[in-house]
Design brief:
single chain; about 70 residues; alpha+beta; two-stranded antiparallel ribbon; 1 helix; about 40% helix; rod-shaped
């Protein structure tokens, strides 16, 4: 009886670990990695840092205001 209970508990533990890894894999595939958002110094719109032009440290401009 004790060995059977130990096997059942072990199987449940193993299944939960596999399920958690599966769920983490799905979250990673969805692209949960968020880019840093910065604010345009002219209009105040937030946009991803790679799309913004850095005017000086801490000051960014959106594409619409990069020429100004």
């Amino acid at each position: 009886m004790g060995l059977r209970l130990l096997i059942i508990v072990g199987a449940i533990w193993f299944a939960l670990r596999v399920y958690r890894r599966y769920r983490l894999g799905i979250k990673r595939e969805r692209g949960t990695h968020a880019e840093k958002m910065v604010q345009c110094a002219v209009c105040g719109v937030y946009l991803p840092e790679p799309e913004a032009k850095r005017e000086r440290p801490g000051v960014f401009r959106c594409p619409a205001h990069q020429a100004h």
